[in-house]
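In the design runs reported in the main text, the only information available to the sequence generator was the tokenized backbone. The following block is the verbatim input for one such run; it is reproduced so that readers can re-run the procedure and compare outputs position by position.
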């Protein structure tokens, strides 16, 4: 029986009673989407999906977006990325998502959801920290909301706070990929594309300026909002078990991978497959 229960005390939900590897009936998809848009982060336990099945399942959330870093993609399935700390990868790539960010906020049409499937889980660490950006916006004082509401933020690829707050640089793009990375604009208080509820949007990572503001003032203000959003009451960590499928609503969350060492052997290997999508779910169009 399809059911949901709380994942954490504040946000997130776990969905039970569904096998994501098969064809999903429209009512099931509607339930998953409604739960995602209400609770922002979902976990499904005990799943076993091939990359092809995962690619098909991922499309319930929107149109898959091949990552700009094309060296992460799986052959034949351009939308499915493989994430691992296996020893064949340099550290900048292993920990290329170990900083606070919002997927594809450097795109004019950013990611709307990101889903991961845990294939191998290290015996310690390897989780994903998530921040609730609806709550971070809701809790701002009214005067601050009025200030934030009218502002437009300039975003470009990479990590603004590289070297600050203990954060590494974003996975470096290849030389020929830089030309695709032009700056874009998003509202600071961004209405959710499905529900219209406002979230504080992408105040870490790619946000580097505010329209009409001097750059240093803008960065100070964005960093102040980031510090606000990363207070303990807004942040929870998703710890994975083999077989977990997780998905987060990227319009109302920020996230950061827990940093990992390069795997010395099987027991500390993390292997995930990932699909990120943009636009509205096909069922809600
Ligand atoms: Fe990410």
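Verbatim output:
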């Amino acid at each position: 029986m399809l059911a949901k229960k709380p994942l954490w005390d504040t946000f997130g939900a776990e969905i039970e009673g569904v096998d994501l590897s098969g064809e999903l009936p429209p009512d099931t998809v509607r339930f998953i989407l409604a739960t995602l848009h209400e609770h922002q982060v979902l976990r499904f336990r005990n799943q076993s999906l091939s990359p092809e099945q995962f690619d098909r399942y991922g499309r319930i959330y929107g149109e898959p977006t091949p990552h700009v870093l094309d060296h992460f993609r799986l052959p034949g399935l351009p939308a499915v990325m493989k994430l691992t700390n296996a020893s064949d990868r340099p550290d900048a790539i292993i920990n290329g998502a170990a900083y606070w960010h919002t997927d594809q906020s450097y795109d004019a049409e950013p990611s709307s959801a990101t889903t991961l499937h845990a294939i191998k889980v290290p015996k310690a660490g390897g989780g994903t920290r998530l921040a609730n950006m609806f709550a971070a916006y809701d809790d701002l004082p009214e005067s601050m909301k009025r200030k934030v509401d009218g502002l437009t933020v300039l975003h470009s690829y990479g990590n603004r706070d590289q070297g600050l707050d203990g954060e590494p640089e974003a996975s470096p793009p290849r030389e020929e990929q830089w030309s695709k990375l032009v700056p874009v604009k998003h509202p600071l208080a961004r209405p959710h594309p499905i529900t219209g509820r406002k979230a504080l949007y992408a105040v870490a990572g790619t946000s580097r300026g505010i329209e009409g503001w001097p750059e240093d003032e803008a960065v100070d203000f964005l960093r102040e909002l980031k510090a606000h959003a990363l207070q303990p009451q807004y942040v929870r960590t998703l710890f994975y078990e083999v077989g977990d499928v997780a998905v987060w609503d990227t319009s109302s969350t920020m996230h950061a991978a827990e940093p990992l060492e390069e795997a010395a052997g099987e027991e500390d290997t993390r292997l995930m497959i990932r699909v990120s999508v943009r636009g509205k779910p096909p069922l809600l169009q």
